Amino acid sequence: MTFPNMAGHHPDIDSVLRQELTQAGIEVHSLQFLLNGKSEVNTSIRGSLHGWEFERSWSYWVATGPGIDADTADALHNTHGNTVRIGGHCGSPSPREFFQGLGCGHYHVDDQQGLKALADAILSVVKANAPDPSQKYAEQNSIGDEIERKFLVKDGWRPQVESSSTLRQGYLNSDPARTVRVRIQDGRAVQTIKGLSDESGEKRPELNKKLTLAEADFMLDLCEPGMIDKTRHYIPAGEHLWEIDEFHGANEGLVVAEISFKTQGEDFLRPEWLGEEVTGRLEFYNSYLAKHPFNSWVEDKAPDA
Predict the structure, then answer these.
(1) Rounded Cα–Cα distance for residues 33 and 44 (Å)
(2) How far apart are CA 253 and CA 244, in angstroms?
(3) Considering 57, 91, 131, 170, which has the largest number of Cβ atoms within 10 A of its Cβ?
(4) C-alpha triplet 120, 125, 126: angle, nearest 5°
(5) Residues annotated as catalytic (active site), given as ranges
(6) What is the SS3 assignment for 215?
(7) DSSP assignment, residue 94?
(8) Does 301 have pLDDT greater than 90?
(9) SS3 179
(10) What is the average pLDDT across 245-269?
(11) How far is CA 4 from CA 7, 59, 60, 86, 116, in A?
(12) How far is Cα 28 from Cα 31, in angstroms, rounded to an integer?
């Protein structure tokens, strides 16, 4: 059933239009200054949804916005093309025909089902282009100083984990003065070059450069013997972020917490699960663990039977 003609003055027009928008999942705005008598429909009601604006005309809604891609517009046209009209065209042309494959940002919508379908199409585009939560803490291109402290951990940290990533990394050069690391993290790759730490062990010069997976795979094949496999768990803590590295393979059993700072000497929250500080200790550098895995320490220190 098409929308009723609301041209002119209707005593219950605002409530009718509010209901139409609400049923489609579109945010309703009531703006009294719009009641100026110049519109085809005398109402204060407008709708909005992720940059799209909805204004009621005679017997249809006019929707304008940033646009939806051609594939999504095609799918919408296939199911509701007669009532969700591209550019307001009464002939209901296809999106690719009307916009030559470009995104469509102008519709006239004739019925409730079509209004809901357009809203759903907009939401699907927003969801598809939303930032991937798994990339929230992904490394980016950067150059400067890395300032961090490292700690061993005790039990009790797992319930606080917000998200986790799988990391695999190797070293083209494990010299502490010029460490060159290649890392793949959840399908993303980065090359990192680090220099020597200062006397505190907290501060090191660092350069991060994103790579393609093909570049990273090529470099990993050239790396020194010994790989690091670990799961990194993220725990936000006030203005800082704890990164809990849970090692696997030959380093199974080792769990290290790292926290980064913008400047040295910053105060930070110390959770109850925080253990001994190991900042600056060479044996806890990943480049060292790649050649001297944690399990070999345990075996060396084990008492004779």
Answers:
(1) 7
(2) 13
(3) 170
(4) 95
(5) 171
(6) helix
(7) -
(8) no
(9) strand
(10) 95
(11) 9, 5, 8, 20, 16
(12) 10
For CA atoms 246, 250, 253, 258, give the dihedral sign.
negative
Q: Which amino acid is at 132?
A: D
Tens digits of residue pLDDT in 146-204:
999 999 999 999 999 999 999 999 999 999 999 999 999 988 899 999 999 999 999 99
Residue 120 makes CB contacts below 8 A (sequence gap 6+) with: 25
> Above 70 in pLDDT, residue 210?
yes
How many CB atoms are closer than 10 A to CB 143?
10
d(CA 224, CA 181): 10
3-class secondary-structure state, position 23: helix
3-class SS of residue 70: helix
pTM of structure:
0.59
Q: How many residues does the chain have?
A: 305
Phi and psi angles of residue 111, each rounded to the nearest 5 degrees, phi first: -145, 170
Residue 34, classed as helix, strand or coil, is helix
For the record, the structure tokens of 160 come out as: 């606080």
pLDDT tens for 81-135 read 999 998 888 887 888 777 665 568 899 999 999 999 999 999 999 888 876 666 7
Structural tokens at position 269: 């929250």
